[in-house]
Amino acid sequence: MKNIILIFLFFFGVHLYAQTSSKYEFKPQYSIALPSETGKIMMVQCSRSVPENIEKYFDLTNTDIASLEDNYKKILSIKATECCLQGWKIPKLDDYAFQYVGVVINSRKYIYINAFLIDISYGQDSFKTWHKDWKTKPIIACDGGDGFWGALFDLEKKTFSRLSVNGFG
User: Fold this and answer.
1) CB-count exposure of residue 109 (10 Å: 0-12, 13-18, 19+)
2) Structural domain boundaries of the chain?
């Protein structure tokens, strides 16, 4: 009987852990970690703020990406603090594709997220037509409003900051 109770407690604990760990989890349909050498290009966004004082760029590991994906939905609770739609909140993550690059600011590692809208209103192939090089080149868009945004994910604290949305033309 004691063994049955221990087994039950073990599986109950595993179940609780699984629920807690998946509360913020989101695995994008379209995402890519770009090489560190693309970082400087990604930071030349046309109509939104980007992080300043970047000391260097680094290549992200699978562990880094897993940490981001385990916490992704936390970003839904923050508001844009930078140009251009201050106070805006991301309504849902499913509508976006994501590019990532590792950045170091004040000796702290972050993932910079470059997000862009997946517009399939013209058909599934429109995404591949408009952004055919998205897996190798940073997407830079002038204007576009909430179709394009960027943010930082702190790899140590597991928190998001510096949400910034493109302006409108």
Assistant:
1) middle
2) 25-165
Angle at 164 between CA 162 and CA 166, to 5 degrees: 165
Tens of pLDDT, residue by residue, the chain (169 residues): 666 665 655 555 555 555 445 799 999 999 999 999 999 999 999 888 999 999 999 999 999 999 999 999 999 999 988 777 788 889 999 989 999 999 999 999 999 999 998 865 544 555 666 677 899 999 988 888 888 999 999 999 999 999 999 887 6
DSSP letter for each residue of 70-116? HHGGGGGG----SSSSTT-----STTEEEEEEEEEETTEEEEEEEEE
Q: What is the pTM of this model?
A: 0.83
Q: List residues bridging with 109 in a β-sheet.
A: 104
